[in-house]
Amino acid sequence: MNPESRAWNEKLIGVEGGIARLDTPALVLDLDAFEYNLRAMVAIARAHGVALRPHAKTHKSVAVAKAQLEAGAIVGFCCAKLGEAEALARGGIDRILLTSPVFFASKLERLVALHARLRELSVVVDDPVQVEALAAAFSAAGRRLRVLVDVDVGSHRFGVPTVADALALARRIAAEPALELAGIQGYAGTVQHIPDYRERAAAAAPAAARLAEIRDALRAEHLPCPIVTGAGTGTHEIDAKSGVFTDLQVGSYAFMDVEYLDCALTDDGTARFRPALEVWTRVVSRHHPGFVTTDAGIKCFATDGPPPRVAAGAPEGARYRMFGDQFGRLELPPGAPNPPLGAIVRCIVPHCDPTINLWDHLLCRRGETLEAIWAIEGRGAVA
Hints:
By secondary structure, this protein is of the alpha/beta class. It has helices spanning 3-10, 31-47, 62-71, 82-90, 105-117, 128-137, 163-174, 197-220, 236-242, 258-261, 352-356, and strands at residues 26-30, 51-52, 77-79, 95-98, 120-125, 145-150, 179-186, 227-230, 247-248, 277-285, 291-294, 309-312, 319-322, 328-331, 344-348, 361-366, 369-375. The strands form 2 sheets. Strands 1, 10, 11, 12, 13, 14, 15, 16 and 17 form a 9-stranded mixed β-sheet that branches. An 8-stranded parallel β-sheet has the order 2-9-8-7-6-5-4-3. The radius of gyration is 22 Å and the shape is globular.
């Protein structure tokens, strides 16, 4: 959001009905739906005796993280990249787990500095070389770094592939005075979006079984394993019920998106979470029957998944497509009149994590009133 656009929108904060006057395109968060989602996830976690460690890759925002803390995410946050963690730390978030390995001199120097400012920092490893590098970097830190063994449970992106490898790596960590063996991580990312609940549960079961096997093997060798972390929005209930995980790395539940709305997240098909994140766009041209042009294109939406879903502002059956970098195409059902110029069209985002990374701010509404503008401090934190 450029300064002029933000200045216009800031003047609308607290103005009853002011949401209709937003400068668009805008990334809008429905606070009622967002807060409902936070409460719903906390209730599930408490019912099954697990903790929440929400993944900040979804929102990259200090304000969102603080709302999650207030709602009950008591064990801290996950970050995919060091830059995300640094952004949260600058905003006062002080318990962070980095869920991908950190390596190379520049990253290690930043990691030591981050460790010094946080109450608790944890990292994952999947290679002995990483353990050696961390041990050397933190030898003079004065406080041990918490380290988890990352386990490959099917994605093949990171993680040790076998129980033997996990045990060997855990022994290496435990032998280093500068490091503290804190447990294991396993994220079954490839199963999160399987649409059918029971098919997803069946696909997730081997991941939980592998983690349980490694946990038990560590304990048999009297190696500590206080944390077994992983899961995601797609498997939150499945993994909570498994009895294996100590905490859940859920992320998208806070906002929801088209990808997750197309998944049954409960066994009976009821919707546990509500779509809270939308891009609001206006009609800017209407010369042709059957479609109009809007002011939100590729630069406003992630394009790695389904198209945005029209939530309001257009006839039922209308579909949204990209019409270039800056513009969108709202395709209307047969016989529907073109909406007027300036009409607001509300679109549920396709994939919330990369969509968030395209924006500087969240415009937070409660009903028809703009309540706040929250910064997305970790936007662009790819390193």
